[in-house]
Backbone:
């Protein structure tokens, strides 16, 4: 169905309007498939956490970040301070 006499940018015999409708149908089909794949059950069961759950999760996550950061800093100190001292004691430097 042609809506305009002169179709500027017409490709494959489709007008801009037809291409827009094709895109619309593809997007709606993708939207309809959400929740039917591997993770569909999880998405259907998911809900917004309560304030208490959110605070607990935030505290645990923050503690984990601090723990991993502290461990990384400890490794940094060992590499910069202790390793050269050990190498000096062994006569490697």
Residues:
């Amino acid at each position: 169905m042609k809506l305009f006499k002169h179709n500027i940018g017409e490709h494959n015999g489709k007008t801009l309007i037809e291409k827009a409708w094709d895109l619309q149908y593809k997007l709606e089909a993708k939207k309809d498939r959400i929740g039917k794949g591997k993770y569909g059950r999880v998405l259907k069961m998911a809900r917004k956490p309560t304030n208490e759950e959110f605070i607990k999760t935030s505290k645990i996550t923050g503690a984990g970040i601090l723990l991993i950061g502290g461990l990384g800093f400890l490794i940094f100190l060992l590499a910069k301070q202790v390793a050269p001292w050990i190498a000096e004691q062994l006569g490697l430097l």
Observations:
- The two ends are 83 Å apart (CA to CA).
- The chain has three helices and no strands.
